[in-house]
Amino acid sequence: MSGKGKLYGVGLGPGDPSLMTVRAVEVIGEADVIAYHSARHGRSIARSIAAKHLRADHVEERLVYPVTTETTDHPGGYQGAMDEFYAEAAARLAAHLDAGRTVAVLAEGDPLFYGSYMHMHKRLADRYDTEVIPGVTSVSAAAARLGAPLAEGEEVLTVLPGTLPEEELTARLAATDVAVVMKLGRTFPKVRRALEAAGRLDEARYVERATMSGERTGELADVDPESVPYFSVAVLPSRVDAERPVRPRGDVVVVGTGPAGPLWLTPETRAALAAADDLVGYTTYLGRVPVRPGQLRHGSDNRVESERAEFALQLAERGRRVAVVSGGDPGVFAMATAVLEAASQPEYADVPVRVLPGVTAANAAAARAGAPLGHDYATISLSDRLKPWEVIAERLRAAASADLVLALYNPGSRSRTWQVGKARELLLEHRAPDTPVVVARDVGGPGERVRIVRLADLDPAVVDMRTILLVGSSQTRAVRRGDGEQIVWTPRRHPEA
Length: 497
Description:
By secondary structure, the protein is α/β, with parallel strands linked by helices. The protein has 14 helices and 23 strands. The protein has helices at residues 22-30, 45-50, 77-98, 117-124, 138-146, 166-175, 188-197, 267-275, 283-286, 305-317, 335-343, 361-369, 389-401, 419-428, and strands spanning 7-11, 33-38, 59-64, 103-107, 130-133, 157-161, 178-182, 205-208, 216-219, 232-236, 251-256, 278-282, 296-300, 321-326, 353-355, 370-371, 377-381, 405-409, 436-441, 449-454, 467-471, 477-480, 486-489. Helix 3 packs across helix 4 and helix 10 (305-317) packs across helix 11 (335-343).
């Protein structure tokens, strides 16, 4: 790089010139060339922020966007026009750098945070000595102007562009603790709808031109969509110490946490858990849910489902928003039935109840093994605590004789040790000894172990309550691939008779 100039990406902060860093001012003063982006009207916010630091002998390179929000007749469309522009702008800056001049590219906020400078950086930084001067972002400025904590403790901050599809915005806004949505302007109506659909509109604040003249802040729900410029953001501030609304009656949502930890939660489930005043559930399942300030937890033993359900409904009657936490999918051998059964009693008829799906143990185990549930299958619990073994045996025979793949839940425990062996005997009356069986334990957890064995070799001693069994049909195949991994799959096409 001998003899070449140096490239700087200079962050100017959110708009108030006094929020520029000392280093940014130094770099501008030392630069030979000052470059900045603008629309075709020629006005540049970046230049206006740095104006008092510009000298008469500065060479100014105005990088004028060919399009902003309008359409273009460029053969490559909008993206083609922009790519061509960035390449031409980079070439102009490269000519100065090759001539030994120092080039400072001005950027509002931080150069590498949704900034135009990054397009120059990607095209030039590998060829020229480069330094990026960070700046105060609009996110930090907005929080400061609102005077509200942005994120506290273990809260998760999500920054979103308003240009995302509405459904994606809704899912992300629902699932996160704290959020900032940027690039509003024409996207504002969509962002407002997403906030409302996510149940977060009442929390949302609006900040326009933070630290600049014409700054405006307020409740987002009260903002006229026609008045929103591009340089504005929506903010969902910290929930820590936020007042919980007083309701005449709350509601109950039954959620499934999947087979293990946070990776198995759906965005909808995350949102329900975050919005709840109270969490009710088996202590082990509650342990999978992040602790949130102001949220109450009510853990109990796994054998008191009816009592747990009634307790949740009673909390809701007192105006609480309650999430009943279940493992897997709440509707598959889990808490949804207990809650709905209790909610069917006349005294709870007016309490709203919803059930949100989760990843089932069968689906999780099947994915680990391949695709054993690729065709018709039956799901049966081997627990005889709530139904007699005779009923279980009859259903096993019926499903086996119909040549269905079987997902066997609750196969064994410390006090139930013979059911797996008896089930194996029944199934061998209808299945070949080498029928593949997936033995999956603690899928998604630290003790995960998934093995594929022959039906004849299924050992009841290795089965416990954290295990699920997937028994193949006559069509299920176990194949060892070139890397040595064994996979199981059931063809979708059944052979003709």
